[in-house]
Amino acid sequence: GQQSRVAVSPDGRLMARRANDGSIELWDMTQVKLLSSLPYLSGNPALLAFSADGTRLVVVVDGVMAFWGVK
Prior knowledge:
By secondary structure, the chain is an all-beta fold. It is 0% helix and 49% strand. The protein has no helices and seven strands. It has strands spanning 6-8, 14-18, 24-28, 33-38, 47-50, 56-61, 64-69. It has a four-stranded antiparallel β-sheet with strand order 1-2-3-4, with no helix packed on it. Strands 5-6-7 form a three-stranded antiparallel β-sheet, with no helix packed on it. Strand 5 and strand 6 form a beta hairpin. It is globular and about 30 Å long.
């Protein structure tokens, strides 16, 4: 099935989404403001999720897992 291209942090403050150009955008939902854009990813993410404490974004593409600090 189709995988989600959006993830929301546990506190609801941050949203990550895969943009059409393949980058991952990180948004502040309280201000509806783009905070940053992570590098282009060549494949479709199999997983896009925040850690339970909301401090990291987890992205899995083509069997490779990457973590980004977001706070």
